[in-house]
Amino acid sequence: MNDMKKSTKQRSCVGCRKKADKSEFLRIVFFDKKLVVDTEQKLDGRGCYLCLKKDCLTMAIKRNAFNYRLKQKVSKEELARFRDQFEKYLP
Ligand SMILES: [Zn+2]
């Protein structure tokens, strides 16, 4: 279910659960057993959204929010790798 119409549907951060338009978040998808930042918001697959805040990533990891939201088993190693990658996107 992916219509091309401009949607006003709100998304919520997997860390702090704040709701906002998806343009305010970083979209993250699980692809090839890796967490990938979907900068174009175009990648297929189950995605989740995260604020551009380190605290939100920390909260999401603590709560296993990625496993839950993406319905995937994300390894600790992958979470550590992703944390390094995520920091490059921080303002
Ligand atoms: Zn957040």
Structure description:
This protein has 91 residues and is α+β, with helices and mostly antiparallel strands. The chain has a single domain (10-87), classed as Hypothetical Cytosolic Protein, Chain: A (2-Layer Sandwich), CATH 3.30.1230.10. The protein has three helices and five strands. Strands 4-3-5 form a three-stranded antiparallel beta sheet. A two-stranded antiparallel ribbon has the order 1-2. A hairpin with a 2-residue loop joins strand 3 (26-31) and strand 4 (34-37). The longest helix has 12 residues, at 76-87. The radius of gyration is 12 Å and the shape is globular. The termini are far apart. The site of zinc ion (ZN) has 7 residues, from loops.
Task: Put the structure in a nutshell.
The mean pLDDT is 91.
Structural class: alpha+beta
Q: What can be said about the biggest beta sheet?
A: 3 strands, antiparallel
Shape: globular
CATH superfamily: YlxR-like
Question: Roughly how much helix do the residues carry, as a percent range?
Answer: 25-40%
According to DSSP, the number of beta strands is 5
| CATH architecture assignment name | 2-Layer Sandwich
Listed once per kind, the bound small molecules are: zinc ion
Secondary-structure element pattern, one letter each: EEEEEHHH
How many individual domains? 1
Q: Which fold name corresponds to the CATH topology?
A: Hypothetical Cytosolic Protein, Chain: A
Strand arrangement, major sheet: 4-3-5
The radius of gyration is 12 Å
Cα separation of the termini: 32 Å
